[in-house]
Amino acid sequence: MKKLKDKDKRKLKKSSFIKNIIVLLTAHLFIKIIGVINKIYLTNREGFGDEGNAIYSSAFQIYTLFLTLSSIGIPNAVSKLVSERLAIGDSKGAHKVFRIAIITFGVIGFGCSIILFLFSHYIACQLIQIPEAELSLLALSPSIFFVSITSVIKGYFNGRENLNVGANSQTIEQVFRTIITIGLIEFIAQSTGLDTRVMAAGAAVATTLSEIICFMYLYKYYKSVKKEIANEIKHSVNYQYRGIRKTIKDIVSVSIPMSVAPILGGINKNIDSMTIVRGLKNFMSETDATLQYGILTGKVDTLIAFPLSFNAAFSSILIPSVSAAKASGNFSAAKRKVKFSILVSLLIGLPSTVVFILLAEPILNLLFPNQPEGAFLLQISAISITFMMLSQNVNSVLHGLGKTIIPAICLSIGSVIKLILNTILVKINPDTFILGGTAGAAFSTVVYHIVTCIIEFWIMQKNMKIHFEPKTFAKPFIATIMMAICLVFTYQNLLRIISHNLCIIVALIVAVVIYAILILILRVFSEEEIKILPYGNIIYKVLKFLKIY
To answer: Structure pTM?
Structure first.
């Protein structure tokens, strides 16, 4: 393929695997921090709190399920098809996939928006039994259309390994969502006298407005690189003609299997929204049941999802990487990326689990001083973090290999198990059984993630024939255990001399530093893995000079 001139490639330049990870990691981390700040504000805001979280979260879970039907599989599907065509020099075919996907999923997204709008009353009153959520569902319904369109654009640029576009759009969306949310909530609080139902709807309106802003950014960016894309298409080689019907079939045949797993994940969350309040009402009032649901979905789920932002970068990049490797027949590079990603997931997931288990109550008191309940739920839910991270990566690998139905089967098994456990455990009063009530829902989610992760991991190994050395798993465990000992020792001793909030912050900082040192001392990363990092050669020389390696 003829090469584009440098000046024509400045916005379309492909990045290295690690550089892309850093771009996405920075974006996801920033987005999660802003998201946590937003949740901290809402939970501590008078008039919103756990009840507002319950109303908004129940509506948001239904909204998320509609998104999975209209758009969740799109970025990965479009990314996979685009990367495969670009790998063989078919830039024209790659862009054709993009154009047809925009129209196809724009129509689907619009239809889903209309359905959610029309059936919001039935969903709120009958399915989730939180009537106050109707207004929030109405406010969220228009954003489904915009998310469908933006998902296609993100998928196109991800397939080109231009990940800055998606990262920037997500950052813009989250920042504006937080700003608009705070502005609307304060306005509503002053206007309605702390009406929790309306305040929750205001948060939903902020979500819709932020998605519209995200769409405007992506559209403007696409227009800015349209000439460069056209020039690349002009020099395209190996173009393989496919009719519109065939292209739609290709997109749908990939996106539907890829959407099944997120749909089942959404169903998993909606199992909670449809069973927790309903089950808890057997032994407590509807108000208390709603508050319990708000604690789990508002605070606990937010904190559990935070570590996943570190891992999302790896899972996003693995799909086009493995797809390109499959198309070109070069699996050795893909195997190295997969092994590196799994190792990093362990290094992030294990200490995150330990921190939330050991310091659940202090963390909730620090972040949510006005609504600190939920320590036991956080401790139970934390067990699933590592398994969730591993599943993210393994799912991406299986999708890249074209084994898109496998994650769906695994998640189906997990969802059935969760539904059975939820139905049994949530109805039990926690005074008679420790894993009864909301704790039962949290426990069933942990089982769901463990089961699906184990099955998916085994299938990935079987298909890619990746050999993991015992030290890949042993060293992160050892480092985590030693870090946990230092964390507890530091926290308990500092608690005697400094304030509670300052104590936990200092203890966490010390734990992070100790953990980083342990990773180096135990030589968790190989020489090759260090050298693929930015400035990896320099880092390795320093470590060698210090006689660490």
So the answer is: 0.79
